[in-house]
């Protein structure tokens, strides 16, 4: 029995070693197939590639294992980078990435005069981008126009279908990212300048290829770079990209994970922060406004110090208020109150939240951000415990809290929701100052 046992053990060790060599157990984040570097410049950037290739980014928890790729439909991974916890994102499900590649190939094959089978997406993104590029004369510090730079002009990806020798016309269903909503050349120039600045050293046209890719797929990195955390915006720190992987700060658990253990004081603090975020996004910067179109407990995270950040920037709409004033569309200066129209067919879904793209793009006064936050804070499910869960002593001291919360949640009268939100901000600050 002893020789047989030795033989079985030896065979087991040999088989395990063979399997490990044939089927990697651990995820190699420096692997070209993971990073998809061959698709560059139809990618998100390369500034963080040295960190990946030098082993500075190390997967952690379940993300360490190769099997994570098979089970991870969202393509989100956790890692450490310079002793900080980070999140790696591919910015889309595999089918979405395949759809992106197909769209770029589809739009470029007619320009290249080649069958789609003979064109790589890395080559196709160039003519597709360059047909939307123009030369702009940029003034120097003295105000003289002295430098010509390539810029990306406003475009509509759903209107550029090209018929080629072996390709069918698409049905025009490809809309691109939410950054393409409310088109404005000034807006595009603004995010382009920030993107180029954050990718210093790269040829400007290469940056435009990367920018085009993100505009078509997912504008989260553009939002996080244009409105950076270092300037006080409630977003994660954006560290950079390599190929089709971006690296962002890991903030902490999302609100859905955090709320069950939170005290009523912590919940008030979180509610206060969300209302302040709504106000900050509405005020915007440089005459641009941000709108939250997919706020939820799952895409807002809580840091170790209790600070809230919006960790999913894919569904944020950026609006150029200067363009609205210039174009003066109908009712542009008439205040608009969100009414949740479109959710009537889902009366039993308290999380249903609709918005009007037209009124976002064409109105100077829109209460959508307060609407989005208050729908989450004061829903019938009462996840925050603020509609019915506050201590009696607080309600006695501030008897108008339920009135303001109801107005913020359901009012359809212009100005009432914003006023209620402002009153709640003052009350919540006063409550927290006394505890």
UniProtKB/TrEMBL annotation:
It is found in: Secreted. Keywords: Secreted, Signal. One of its GO terms (cellular component) is extracellular region. Its main location: secreted. Residues 215-392 form the FAM69 protein-kinase domain. Belongs to the DIPK family. This is FAM69 protein-kinase domain-containing protein.
